[in-house]
Write a structure and sequence with these properties.
By secondary structure, the protein is of the alpha/beta class. It has 20 helices and 18 strands. The strands form two sheets. The chain has an eleven-stranded mixed beta sheet, with helices on both faces.
């Protein structure tokens, strides 16, 4: 699977540039239709009767090609067309002209007897919801529950956002075959669920064309950041591998900070210190051995602890409680890099500009924020970024001057420079109390070893998901740090 994610505009631009690079639209459509036919038979190897829903553009043209090729393989195929063939243009018209089988109006399509339905109505660039005959057909298809293969994206889905393009229905596909590169809507929810199994087909688009459109969003995979990960030096020592400080909250809310601290240590930081009120440290002392403890009652004490020994990374927020804003400011001023999570973000509720100013005061200092949707919404309030999850994370990163990790089953990591990743490896049982605290600690452990902020955050997200996959069902957050060594070893 290639890593670049192309927006619908970038994909359209690649299609426009392809003929000049030696790949005609007709050749690409023929290859796309062949890929659709292959994917249909992979989905239903024993299929005999196929219905192809054909739309008014190139998506419909792909459907006509697939119909012709499936007939050549001995299947019974009917095309249900949204518009008459005479209304098609360009390559789609040519593809439809080579189809010699039956064509019925979409309103007359019969799905109940089909072994497979190919949804070639609309592609990723759809900008409005389905209505009229298309909406009615999709609703009937849903009721019929016929196995469905979508072409490019399920009709009605916005390929950039992963959300319905409007108020109309969206096809729920068993599989989706798309071409050249995935789009953000294939991996952002709910699009990922609506697509079913993804098939990415190579249809002969020249690689130089893809490179020329300048992808800045990627699937989160080790190939993006593996080379940036730290490697311990044979003659190194623990402080050479980085010292991480984690602020701990009050006595009866110590678990979150402890999870972060242990995760930072497991992620490779050479030394980790929990700093906070003595009553909280007594609780920690009963649970940790390799993590150091240092008492501090307030922001001044925290600053003194950070200044006592070089602090390469600090984590503020997990279980921190109220009144942590000054701790955040001291961490941003004194630590080599900072991860802000949970209560550290809530402390700036409705004041993202104040947090941005505090970050900008030391612009050379790597900072990563790890909010879930609720924390993200509280931080920005009425000024929250809009658009897709990818767009919101990118805007937030640019406004704050920090890497933003917008968590969820499709976690987005965005850099102020516009680079972004979308993760697709997190299992559903990672949605458990304390898992985010572990993620913050992994990111800090990598930052402490001087991994660049974007790569550290992206790596932390992927490693976090793989650790959860290694544990499996029954996962609790306490299990995650112990699963890290095997995940990290596999990256060597």
């Amino acid at each position: 699977m290639t890593l670049e994610l192309l927006s619908t505009c970038q994909m359209a631009e690649a299609d426009r540039r392809a003929p000049a690079a030696g790949a005609s639209g007709a050749e690409l459509m023929e290859a796309a239709g062949r890929a659709v036919a292959d994917a249909a038979l992979d989905l239903q190897p024993l299929a005999r009767r196929v219905v192809v829903m054909a739309g008014p553009g190139n998506n419909g043209g792909d459907g006509y090609v697939a119909a012709r090729l499936l007939v050549a393989r001995g299947l019974e195929v009917a095309v249900a067309a949204l518009v008459q063939r005479e209304r098609l243009k360009g390559d789609a018209a040519a593809a439809a002209g080579r189809w010699e089988g039956p064509v019925v109006p979409l309103a007359e399509a019969e799905f109940s007897g089909a072994d497979i339905v190919i949804d070639a109505l609309f592609g990723a660039g759809l900008s409005r919801g389905l209505d009229g005959a298309a909406a009615e057909a999709v609703e009937r298809l849903s009721a019929a529950a016929a196995p469905t293969l979508a072409v490019d994206v399920p009709s009605g889905l916005d390929g950039d956002t992963g959300k319905p393009a409007g108020e109309g229905p969206v096809v729920r596909a068993d599989a989706t075959v798309t071409f050249v590169r995935l789009k953000p809507g294939h991996v952002l929810y709910p699009g990922r669920a609506l697509c079913g199994r993804l098939v990415l087909a190579d249809i002969g688009m020249p690689e130089r064309v893809v490179e020329s459109v300048g992808a800045a969003a990627f699937l989160n995979r080790p190939a993006l950041w593996r080379r940036a990960l730290p490697r311990p030096e044979p003659e190194g020592h623990k402080y050479g591998r980085g010292h991480c400080v984690v602020w701990t909250g009050p006595e009866f809310a110590t678990g979150a900070a402890r999870l972060s601290a242990v995760a930072a240590l497991r992620a490779g930081a050479g030394a980790v210190t929990l700093v906070g009120p003595p009553a909280a440290l007594r609780i920690h002392a009963a649970h940790v051995t390799a993590v150091m403890l240092r008492a501090a009652d307030d922001a001044a004490g925290f600053a003194a602890a950070v200044a006592l020994r070089r602090t390469d990374a600090a984590v503020v927020g997990p279980g921190a409680g109220a009144g942590v804003e000054e701790i955040v400011r001291r961490a941003l001023d004194l630590a080599g890099s900072v991860v802000l999570d949970a209560d550290a973000l809530t402390a700036f509720t409705g004041r993202p500009e104040d947090l941005a100013a505090a970050i900008a005061a030391r612009a050379d200092r790597p900072v990563a924020l790890t909010p879930h949707e609720g924390e993200f919404g509280r931080l920005f309030g009425d000024a929250a970024p809009s658009g897709s999850k990818l767009e919101r994370a990118r805007e937030a990163a640019a406004r704050l001057g920090a890497v933003v990790v917008l968590k969820g089953p499709d976690t987005v990591v965005a850099s102020p420079d516009g680079r972004a990743t979308i993760a697709d490896n997190a299992p559903p049982y990672l949605a458990t109390a304390g898992a985010g605290d572990v993620l913050a600690g992994i990111a800090a452990g990598l930052l402490a070893q001087r991994t660049p902020a974007f790569e550290a955050a992206a790596a932390a997200v992927w490693i976090h998901g793989e650790a959860a996959n290694a544990v499996g069902r029954g996962l609790i957050a306490d299990d995650l740090p112990g699963a890290l060594p095997a995940v990290l070893a596999a990256l060597d």
